[in-house]
Amino acid sequence: MIATDGRRERKKAETRTRIREAALDLFASQGYRETTIAQIAARADVATRTVTLHFPAKDDLLFADDPFTPESLEERLRARTAESTLDAVGDWMHATMRELDARDHDSGADPAHLWQRRALRAGLLMADDDLRGRARAGYRDLELLIAAGIGADLGLPADALLPRLAAVTVVTGLREIYVTREGRTRSAASELSDLVDEVLAFARAGLRDRSAAPDPRGSAVRDE
Asked: CB-based burial of residue 79 (10 Å sphere; 0-12 exposed, 13-18 middle, 19+ buried)?
């Protein structure tokens, strides 16, 4: 029974992947709005109902199963001790990226394919107003977690301006990596990691500069 369940889950995962791959190819070649569920089903060689069972809404094909989840970030932030929030965020990003590369390597897949597809997905999201809006809303939980952590580091409320600015900077920067000139030319976690570090360094610099400035109310904002 356990073996049967395992095969069933593997087949389900393979079907989801095939459908998502077919959708990305069609979105890229003929446009997101112009692509129909029937076309995706035909490309993936499955029934139309199979597509909607796995992905009830069309935009789920671009948003479901993202590995960089708020739940995993929250767990990583909860586990930190002396490290800053930005250090923990960097470790979470790097660890998740390494896990994705290792997963593809173990399965015999080319890890470069994953990052190329994420870059393709990012370009599709940026090109469509509705998709861009959903992406922005989907990143809000990450922003709130990072803002709360930075606020705790600085002795400020999570909804204070400085933690919110830093959190938005980090999440926006990480999202933008895939659509930058640098990000589009890199195809491995090890190559993309430098760009993650650049985003975090930019946020740290902003926190340092703001912390060194006098508070207009007569006090100084404490650094990390």
From this structure: exposed
pLDDT tens, 58-116? 999 999 988 899 999 999 999 998 899 999 999 999 999 988 888 877 677 777 788 88
- At 140, phi and psi to the nearest 5? -60, -40
For residue 1, what pLDDT is reported?
A: 45
- DSSP class of 36: -
Expressed in percent and rounded to 5, the helix, strand and coil fractions of the chain are: 75, 0, 25
Structure tokens at 72: 């995993």
Query: Residue 59 to residues 128, 173, 179: CA-CA distances in angstroms?
Result: 11, 23, 19
136 and 220 share a domain? yes
Residue at which a domain ends, from 39, 64, 89? 64
The CA-CA-CA angle for residues 127, 182, 29, to 5°, reads 35
Nearest CA to 132 out of 183, 182, 89, 172 is that of 172
Q: What is the pTM of this model?
A: 0.83
Q: Are 147 and 166 in contact (CB under 8 A)?
A: yes
Handedness of CA 149, 138, 131, 17 (dihedral sign): positive
Judge contact between 163 and 203, C-beta under 8 A. no
* CA-based nearest residue to 170, from 142, 212, 208: 142
Whether residue 55 is found in the same domain as residue 164: no
